[in-house]
Amino acid sequence: MTSPIKSYVLRRVLYMIPTLAGIVLITFLLFDVAGGSPAAMVLGKNASAQAMEEFDESKGFNKPVLAGLWTGTRALEDADFSRSAGALSGATGARFMSDHGGGWVRLAPNGACAVPFVFPPRPGTVFSLRFAYRGERPAAWALQNADTPGPLEIPASAEWRTAELIFRTAAAGAPAVLTLRAGAGAFDVRALRLRRRVAHGWDSQLTHYLGQLARLDLGVSTAANRKVTDLLREGIGPSLALTVPIFFGGTLLSIALALVCAYTRNRLPDRLLVLGAVVLMSVNYLVWIIAGQYLLAYKGRWFPIWGFDSWRHLALPVLIGIASGLGANLRFYRTVMLDEMYKDYVRTAFAKGLSPAGVLLKHVLPNALIPILTNTVIAIPFLYTGSLLLESFFGIPGLGGLSVNAINSADVDVVRGVVLVGAVLYMGASLLTDLCYAVVDPRVKLR
Predict the structure, then answer these.
(1) What is the count of structural domains for the chain?
(2) Which of 40, 249, 253, 444 would staple 437 via disulfide (CB 3.0–4.6 Å)?
(3) 271, 320: one domain
(4) Structural domain of 85
(5) Are 187 and 270 members of one domain?
């Protein structure tokens, strides 16, 4: 690689670093934040709170999203007693009260009520319990299998007031029990909110995700219980075995037919090819697949319908892939070739007596390579993702089928891994496109 190319590649790679960071951040926000609870998507909304908590912990979803010392926990859902007693319904010594300003739970004088944990809080962990209260007399917290550095007494307050209890659960033994004991007067509670403390302020979902990427770890598939990198490594071979022949076969055939169209413009071959291109573009992809399987595989017995055992299993999906994309490619390349056919250098070449094949291949095609390269090289990253429909209908164990199954089963790590690797490959293809421009066209300078 010459020095100018090395310098250009280095500059482009440096410019791509912010783009790559943006891609990583966008994939994180889409799959970890905007998509809702991954635990609910994978386990279902009817899964127990403890099962979803364990899932979040195994995936790093039980941390703050970006930064912070405290994060939520399903051990106690945020409770707002403005409309009902909620989790305190039926608790001994607790009664729901309401007025025009909303509702609350009242503890009778000298009454007691345990905090209704959905499941035992994690051992050896610091928690913060914030609660809104008012009381005629001081109240107090009673802790079992937990400790707190601060006072447990709750001062009396005639108005609604927010207080906080910070405690640490025991590292082993019985689960923690927190009991609120009212004083000599009535004691009202309007809200409860439990938060768990993380290791440090940057112990978040984002840093957990970045740490995984730094180790080239894309996570673990919840459906297959295997590393995503292993699944991608196994699926890339079948996908490329399908998409590479489709890509090169479709590209070469489209360019050849486009040259014929350009040379015979407005004559019978050109009009027939354009008509064929329109027909090919008008037929839905699924129609090609179903018709090909029924007519050529089932009725004609020319190809196998299902499997990935030999080249014969790939022949039919490759033919369908080429046919389904031929129409759009032919129209595009025909337009590119026609732009070159009526330029002065082409007329000069014909005037010198060069053969049509010589003019088309030595003059027209080289000068039309810039838009052709743009269309072809940018398509290279999509070879990696495979063909969703072809792989699913023909039983090819590639990344297309893997992606479909991951979407159907809400396998977040697999979908995110496929999207992220595809985005990185797209960036690399953009750089490769610029380098190809400089190779095929001397007028393009890498600066």
Answers:
(1) 2
(2) 444
(3) yes
(4) 79-197
(5) no
Chain Cα centroid distance, residue 421: 10
Residue 301 resides in a domain? yes
∠ Cα 156 157 163 (to 5°): 85
311 and 398 fall within a common domain: yes
Determine phi and psi for 100, rounding to 5 degrees.
-65, -20
> Distance of alpha carbon 77 from its chain centroid, rounded?
28
Question: Helix, strand, coil % (nearest 5) of the chain?
Answer: 55, 15, 30
Say if CB 196 and CB 71 are below 8 A apart. Answer: yes
Kindly state whether residues 261 and 161 are assigned to the same domain.
no
Domain boundary among 158, 177, 197: 197
Strands, E assignment, 278-388: none
What would the pLDDT profile of 277-289 be if each residue is shown by its tens digit?
A: 999 888 888 888 8
CATH number at residue 118: 2.60.120.260
Instruction: Specify whether 338 is located in the same domain as 273.
Output: yes
In a domain, 403, yes or no: yes
Q: Let me know if residue 25 belongs to a domain.
A: no
Q: Give the helix ranges, DSSP H, for 193-267.
A: 205-214, 228-263
Q: What is the pLDDT of residue 124?
A: 92
Side chain identity at residue 90, one-letter code = G
Q: How many CB atoms lie within 10 A of CB 446?
A: 16
Side by side, the strands of the sheet bearing 112-114 are: 112-114, 177-181, 139-144, 153-154
Is 232 domain-assigned?
yes
Instruction: Give pLDDT tens digits for 398-441.
Output: 888 888 888 888 888 898 888 888 888 888 888 888 777 777 76
**Mutual angle of helices 228-263 and 412-440, in 10-degree steps:** 40
Whether the pLDDT of residue 326 is over 60: the answer is yes
User: Looking at 29-38, 67-76, 99-108, which range is the least confident one?
Assistant: 29-38
Residue with tokens 């004691």: 187
CB atoms inside a 10 Å sphere around CB 149: 7
Are the beta carbons of 79 and 91 closer than 8 angstroms?
no
Same domain, 187 and 259: no
Task: Tell me which residue has tokens 């046919």.
Answer: 323
Tell me the pTM.
0.79
Q: What is the pLDDT of residue 1?
A: 52
The reported pLDDT for the residue numbered 255 is: 92
| Dihedral-angle region of residue 30 (phi above 0 means left; psi in -120 to 50 means alpha; beta otherwise) | alpha
Instruction: Kindly state whether residues 180 and 233 are assigned to the same domain.
Output: no
